[in-house]
Amino acid sequence: MQKTYLTVTAHPDDEALGFGASSYVLSQKGHKVFNCILSGNVDARRHRPDVNQLKKHTNNAQKFMGAEPVILGHFPNIKFNTVPHLDLVQYIEGIIEQVQPDVIITHHPYDLNNDHYHTSKACQAAARLFQRKPCKPLISLYFMEIPSSTDWAFPVDGQNFAPDTFIEVGEVGVAQKLKALYAYEGVMRPYPHPRSNEAIKALATLRGSQVGRQYCEAFQTAMHIIEP
Ligand SMILES: [Zn+2]
Fold first, then answer.
1. pTM of the predicted structure, to 2 decimals
2. What spacing in Å lies between the alpha carbon of 15 and ligand 1's midpoint?
3. Per residue in 9-44, pLDDT tens?
4. Measured in angstroms, how far is the CA atom of residue 164 from the centroid of ligand 1?
5. What is the pLDDT of residues 168-177, one digit of tens each?
6. What is the pLDDT of residues 74-100, one digit of tens each?
7. Side-by-side strand order, sheet with 32-37
8. How far is the CA of 137 from the centre of ligand 1 (A)?
9. C-alpha 175 to ligand 1 mean position (Å)
10. 3-state DSSP call for residue 8?
């Protein structure tokens, strides 16, 4: 069955870091992938491109990932803590109504990045839309792994990212993910930064090796329904 996947992330490039390779391989199998980026016009980014350039980078990245036209929110970068929780929830609910996803992927709630944290909390609330109004039932909700952010949330309380679901992406998936990341000029860094060519490939190798595959992206299940 062809499925519709929706990622809900805070910043342009998060969707590529967490789901870029999966997005490509899923799209090649006929699934649809929509990326919703809550701070679509990032305004407090270091070495930031201007808004039009960023839009161009974002659109180019979607093509490398085989994704549908991107959905851009206008929440303030690095200031999601100043946005009422309900505003974020209602915005995401609107996107869910529009896209009708089977699967939603968002940030891990123990991600050290504050915007990621608020995105995750709001998305978890919005994913329960079916409890409030009739809509297509969700099959799965997963948390993604963002190198240089998820793994910097020091696991002081044992609530760190614990992958339990893997998507095999192959060499071509990793290559497309890297192309998407390079489409965002200024995002990739030299090794040993976690957002370097080597580290992105190494993480895919590690995640693959954990389940006996060559390259994978890893996720943590928040909710999954098995249809008998
Ligand atoms: Zn981010």
1. 0.95
2. 9
3. 999 999 999 999 999 999 999 999 999 999 987 765
4. 22
5. 999 999 999 9
6. 999 989 999 999 999 999 999 999 999
7. 71-72, 32-37, 4-9, 103-106, 140-144, 216-224, 165-168
8. 28
9. 21
10. strand
